[in-house]
Design goal:
Number of helices: 6
Number of strands: 0
Structural class: mainly alpha
Distance between the termini: 22 Å
Shape: elongated
């Protein structure tokens, strides 16, 4: 869903459809944080506060790094946000690759 929503956001000529794509993206990744916390606490029983602090740090870095990447790419491509979002498709692709490698 996330990958498809990035395509909708970046390739749709209709702004309302792009907005719907943003909603779909939020819906598709909204469960990731609770799932990550749950899986981390189940697999690292002695992680304690440090585990959650590192998860929060990783989340903060991702929430600042992703938009920075999109902004830099958009600026380099003539201030076209759609092109920046299209280049950000790398993030859901990396997520899918990570999930596939985790199962191996």
């Amino acid at each position: 869903m996330c990958l498809g929503s990035y395509f909708i956001i970046s390739l749709s000529p209709v702004p309302a459809l792009g907005l719907i794509g943003c909603g779909i993206c939020g819906f598709s990744v909204g469960i990731l944080w609770p799932g990550t916390f749950s899986m981390a606490s189940a697999s690292m029983l002695t992680g304690g506060t440090a585990l959650f602090a590192l998860l929060a740090l990783g989340g903060d870095l991702g929430c600042s790094g992703g938009p920075t990447y999109v902004g830099l790419i958009s600026a380099a491509l003539g201030d076209d946000l759609r092109k920046g979002i299209f280049c950000a498709i790398i993030f859901p692709i990396l997520l899918i690759v990570g999930l596939v490698l985790k199962r191996l």
